[in-house]
């Protein structure tokens, strides 16, 4: 995922707080893209499902996303498998 794409996604998540499911499987996330998405997720109050599966090398970089999910009171499922 390119940084511009991640910034756009972060803005969508911040603006459309009704997003219930976000699937970023095999998205090719990087450090900067992860931060942009994490910032948007902090405002996505209705998010219930987040799939980050199959983003190799991201296990140590998703901490910002996981931390910001504390602001999403409805989260019930996070898939972070296959991220080593």
**Rough shape?**
globular
Give start-end ranges of low-pLDDT stretches. none
User: What would you call the quaternary organization?
Assistant: single chain
- The structural class is alpha/beta
**What is the CATH top level name?**
Alpha Beta
**Corresponding CATH superfamily:** Ribonuclease Inhibitor
The CATH architecture can be given as Alpha-Beta Horseshoe
Largest sheet: 3 strands, parallel
Helix content: 25-40%
Number of strands: 3
Q: Count of helical segments?
A: 3
General description of the model:
With 84 residues, the protein is an alpha/beta fold. The chain has one domain: Ribonuclease Inhibitor (Leucine-rich repeat, LRR (right-handed beta-alpha superhelix)). Helices cover 36% and strands 11% of the residues. It has a three-stranded parallel beta sheet with strand order 1-2-3, with no helix packed on it. Strand 2, helix 3 and strand 3 (77-79) form a beta-alpha-beta unit. Helix 1 (3-15) runs parallel beside helix 2. The chain starts with a helix and ends in a 5-residue tail after the last strand. 26% of the residues are buried. The mean pLDDT is 84.
